[in-house]
Design a protein that fits this description.
By secondary structure, the chain is an alpha+beta fold. The chain has one domain (2-160). The protein has helices at residues 2-13, 17-29, 42-48, 64-68, 81-96, 148-160; strands at residues 35-40, 70-78, 101-108, 111-119, 123-133, 136-147. Strands 1-2-6-5-4-3 form a six-stranded antiparallel sheet. 33% of the residues are buried.
Length: 161
Amino acid sequence: MKKIYAILAALALALPMFGQNGRELYNKYSDLPGVSAVYISPAMFRLIGRIPDVELADEDVNLTPIIKSMSGFYLLSTENADTGEKLYKEVSGNLKKSKYELLMEAKEDGEAMRLYSIGDEKTVTSLLMLAKDGAETTFLTIDGQMDRAKLEEVIASAAAD
């Protein structure tokens, strides 16, 4: 499961109800004590998109086309149990009212990670991850116009290992 986290993090370096809420959640939680927060702007993705092919170490996966299609990234992570529980409940409640589709769920030894998307058969416009491991809660959302086939290839590669 940690490999999936690593690939999602790599996507950040080298999706529309939640696009607004991702920003709102980020603004609401990012300054709270014990919360780690990362925001990557569309300008940064344009800059990253000019970099030659970005590949994962020891993997045959080229992330460049996916990175070039991204327009926003929000990450919140906390080990504060109260803050994490509030964040988890708020995101879960929003997901129930949204058009997000569950792509995958992984559970292991009390850890749970769910990956959701919005889009059509060819394009993913929003990718959302919600993970809980004991007191640690992580929320990640990526917006853009990502090619579904290429994104599924990256996710499948991560899940296979």
